[in-house]
Design goal:
alpha/beta; single chain; 17 strands; 5-stranded parallel beta sheet; 12-stranded mixed beta sheet; about 350 residues; binds magnesium ion; binds threonylcarbamoyladenylate
Amino acid sequence: MKTRVLTVDPEHPTPEALAEAGHILRAGGLVAFPTETVYGLGANALDADALGRIYAAKERPANDPIIAHIARIEQLDQLARDIPPAARALAEAFWPGALTLVLKRAPGVPDTIAAGRDTVAVRMPAHPLARALLQAVDLPIGAPSANTFTRPSATTAAHVLEDLDGRIDLVLDGGPTPIGVESTVLDLTGPAPVVLRPGGVTLEDLQAVLPETTLAPRYLAEDAGTDAPGQLLKHYSPRARVLLFTGSRAATLTRMQEEVQRLAAQRLAVGLLLAAEDAEAFAEQGLTNRAAVEVLGGEDDHAAISRRLFEALRALDRRGMDTILVRDFGREGLGAALWDRLLRAAEGRVVDVDR
Ligand code: TXA
Ligand code: MG
């Protein structure tokens, strides 16, 4: 299969581009498109065969369910049943936006989207191109992140092609995605709302609407079966080994600097994912010529760090790094999502310098 790429102005997609994408989706094909979080790999959410093609293209295990994207609130009632008032309140507050709600699945919605569970995850994206596509095709679109399984999510069309060229029909290139980490996945099927994956909408934001919301991502070293979709520790990983440092800033930077010298002495290629302030500290130590540096953004600017994170991980992979060093940027707000992605990129290899 040859993958076509259409470059489109996200604010003003041409009717031709939308018609072509819509035609492919209605025929059961695969179209990657930008959302405000990351690029999605889309298929008709009501077509089990089309959804099956997503799993094949991504090499995704069959027990990991897929988010259904919608453009209109009425489509929620088509996909889910017994929708609790909390879901309506959250949709009102955060849709369109980076919040995915896990609800009970309506009859007629294919098993494949939920990997056999009786739930369904639904999100109304805010990105203008995603919205235009959903409106044009007038179907819910099932879309996981447009990367191969366990790789960092795609935040540009080039990332999509890096992983999926030749495996999907079309990429709508609408430029880089503005948030850069995935949506928050909130489970509303239990007694209290639980964040399964921290993401673009923060826990603090959710608690302002539903105070009883808790954060409970689980990290599993091995595939624990159908009870634990999307919770594998290895996820969002570059090919390089990632080490995640945590602790007070000064001690953390000292330990990271020692580690650069140790690894460089072994002739290993070292990559650094740094906040702008940290990059200055490394430069003062004369270490920036011993390692490949990717600056993410100001240390308190979690939005900038999130936007750059996956591109920076992929860039260090392209440059052939053996090891990537990064530090914890805090757990407040978007920091919770950053910590989650870094922990998974590191496959749990955390160095706590204060211990
Ligand atoms: O921002 C996003 O959420 C992006 C864009 C494209 O919308 N999508 C995305 O999809 O990140 P994916 O498949 O890479 O991650 C979806 C997560 C997975 O961890 C999956 O296990 C979880 O949502 N999920 C999906 N359906 C679920 C369900 N029915 N129950 C529990 N978790 C579910
Ligand atoms: Mg994903």
